[in-house]
Amino acid sequence: RDDIKANYQATIDTVANTGFTGVEAAGYNDGQFYGMAPADFKKSIEDAGLEVLSSHAGRPLADNTKDTNWDEVWKWWDTAIQAHKDAGMKYLVVAWIPTPKTLVDLKAYCDYFNQVGEKCNAAGIRFGYHNHNFEFTEIEGEVMYDYMLKNTDPAKVFFQMDVYWVVRGGQSPVEYFNAYPGRFEILHIKDNKELGQSGMVGFDAIFKNIDKSGAKYLVVEVEKYTGTPFEGIKESYNYLANADYVRASYK
Length: 251
Hints:
The chain is of the alpha/beta class. The protein has helices at 2-6, 8-18, 38-47, 70-86, 103-122, 144-150, 163-168, 173-179, 203-208, 210-213, 229-242, 244-249, and strands spanning 22-25, 28-29, 32-33, 51-56, 91-94, 126-130, 138-139, 142-143, 158-162, 186-189, 217-220. A 7-stranded parallel sheet has the order 1-4-5-6-9-10-11. The chain has a two-stranded antiparallel sheet with strand order 2-3. It has a two-stranded antiparallel ribbon with strand order 7-8.
């Protein structure tokens, strides 16, 4: 993220030269991506030989969800959805929500996401939610993540599972694949540092069971870097490219 701020195009070119085929943006703000108009952003990515896949963006509700100004919320989403469409995005993903205090608040987010998903569907974009580890805590006896999966419409909301944060939450990605097959259209493939360093995530089992997840795309994210970010993404790419169980999952 620091590199892309310092030298945008050189960073994009390095990602492409490493071997990756697409990007997920994390720089949306007020109708622009990294300060560029959507069409200009799209061109910059495609000129580097990459696909514009997805973007993290979102508008939280009021702390007391009942106090939400819905006119402002939907105005924000109308702008965001149009910008993502103009940028050629296939997916628009909410990266987090404030931890709800009650199930009523969590249900409000589920209903909200169903409505956003319907709007995104109308624009030809899939809408999803990305987890951290707090979603595996309980609210009034309900595990947040399970509650969200059960109370969102699969036709309107997919889940971008971050496998590292699932493990950090004390859970198994594969068990979620089995419990909610097909709900995880994008997986964030991540480790404590570069991929494969910690041994804690269990990538072997994840890839052996990936068909159950519904994953269409894998997004590599490096949580912490041992060296430079460019060295980190190269090491992570090479780890996946040379893992037998990764190749076997795509035969």
